[in-house]
Design brief:
Layout: H1 3-12, H2 15-28, E1 37-44, E2 50-54, E3 60-61, H3 66-78, E4 85-90, E5 93-95, E6 98-100, E7 103-107, H4 122-135, E8 140-141, E9 145-147, H5 163-166, E10 183-189, E11 199-204, E12 211-219, E13 226-230, E14 237-245, E15 251-256, H6 260-274, E16 278-279, E17 283-285, E18 294-300, H7 304-314, H8 317-332, H9 337-350, E19 371-372, H10 374-385, H11 390-394, E20 417-424, E21 427-435, E22 441-449, H12 456-471
Parallel strand pairs: 6-8, 7-9, 8-16, 9-17, 12-14
Antiparallel strand pairs: 1-2, 1-22, 3-19, 4-7, 4-18, 5-6, 10-11, 10-15, 13-14, 20-21, 21-22
Helix pairs in contact: 2-12, 3-7, 3-8, 4-6, 7-8, 8-9
Amino acid sequence: MSITQCFVFILLQIPGFSLIENKVTAFQETSGVRRAIVSISVKDCESNNYVININGDKAINSASTMKLISTATALEILGQNFTYSTELSYSGKIINNELNGNLYMSSNGDPSFGSSRWGSSHQKVLAEVMSSVKSVGINKVSGSIILMNTKFEDFDVSDTWAWNDLGNYYGATPYLFNFNENKFSVYFSAGGSVDEPASIISMNPQSDYWNIINKVTTGPAGSGDNVYIYSTPLSNTILMKGTIPLRSKNFSVRGSIPNPPLVFGELLKEELAKNGISVEGKVLLQSYQSAQLNMLYKASSKSLTELLKSCNYSSINLLADAFVKQVGYKLSGSYTYESGIIETKNFWKNRGVNVDALNMKDGSGLSPSGTITANVMCDILGEMKRSSLFETFTATIPQLGISGTVSRIGDGRNENMFVKSGSIDATRAYAGYFKTSTGKWMTFMIGVNRYDSDSSRKVNAFLREILVDLSKL
C-alpha cells in the first residue's frame, strides 16, 4: 500500500467521515428520495484524494452552486481589480448650444450600472448623464442617441431557460449595456374579492413602447406573490399572469426588461427633454462607429471582488451570467453564453481538470438542464485552492452560520466553512470549502436531484444536517 493510499485509508477511518457516509447511504433509501440521486463528494485539497465519494460521478443539476465556477473563473481571468465602465460621448461640434452630431452611450458589460444594490439607481444615473450634457452648454442635439456595442448576437439568452423564468427579474439576461440590473418593478392593487382583476398602479422604469397585457387576478389573503411575467428579448409585449393577495395595495413584483439598451436610451431622451434639451433624432442601437468621440461622462463599477461577493452572497443570476459572458468577451471577443462557456471549460481543462462532466448552460445555474458531477465541482474548487487568489475567492463565499443564504444553518458561527447554496425545481445542493480541526482544507459538494415534490422539507433538513456534520470534522 502506497503512502497516499495509507493516508486515505486512515482518513476514512475517522468516525465523522464514516458517519456522514452512512447517513447519505441511508437517506438514499428513504421515501420520496429512492428515485432521486443523492450525491456527495469531499476532497482533500492537499492530497487531491476524495475522502467521501457517493454517486460523485453522477450528473446532477447544479442550480446556483454553478456560481462558484463562474465567479472563480472570472476572478482568475479578469483579475480582482477589474472594473466595468459606462460612458457618454458625443460626435461633431457644439455651435451656439447645439450639438451637430450624436450622443453615444457605451459600456463593456457593467451589470451594476444604475443599481440600488451599490448605492445608485436608474434615476440617478439618468440625472448624471443629463447633467454632463448640460454642463457643456448643449440645449439641442441635431442627431440621435446611439447605444453602442449592442450587436444582435449580444441579445442572446440561454436556450434552455424555462419560459416562465425569462420575464421575471431573476431571469434578466446581461447585455453589453445594462442598467438597474435589467429589471423593472410593477405595482398592483388587488380587487375587492378573490378572482377579481388586479389593477396596475404604476411601473418603474417603464417604456412607452411596451404593450402590457395584464391578466393578474386577486388570490386569497396571505397567498403571497404568485405572479409570472412573460417577455422575450427585443419584444415590446409583456404578459403578466397569476395572483396577488386579497387586500394588497401597492403590491410590488419585479420583471426583466426585454431590451435594456433601447429602454435606457428612451428614458435618457425623456430626461433631456424635461430639462430643456431636445433631441431631433431617434434612439438607435449600433455596433460600431467611425466618428471621433469626445467623452462627457464615465461611471466605473466597484471592483470585481465586490461584485463577486454580491453574486455569491445574494445569488444574483444576472451577475453570474455577466461574468461568464465577460470571460468569453475578453478571450474570444464574443459576448455570448456559448463563448463564455467554451472559454470557461477550456480554462479549467488547461489547469488539468477533466471537464467532460461539466455541462454548463449558463453562468448562474438557472437552466434546469445544466448539470455537473460532485467530483468535477470538487476538482475545480480544489484547483482553485492552489491559486494565489484563493483567499480572495473564499472572501466572496458565504460562511456557515454567518452570512448569505447559509447564515441560519448550524448552531453558531463557523468561520472555517464557506458554502454556496443552490435550489431549483426538485434540486437542492451545497458546495464550497471547509477547514478541519486539524487544519486540512477540504472541498465538497452535496446535492439531492429529482426528489419527490412533497419531500422538499425533508431534503432541506437532511442537507443542513450534513453541512453541520462536515463543519465539525
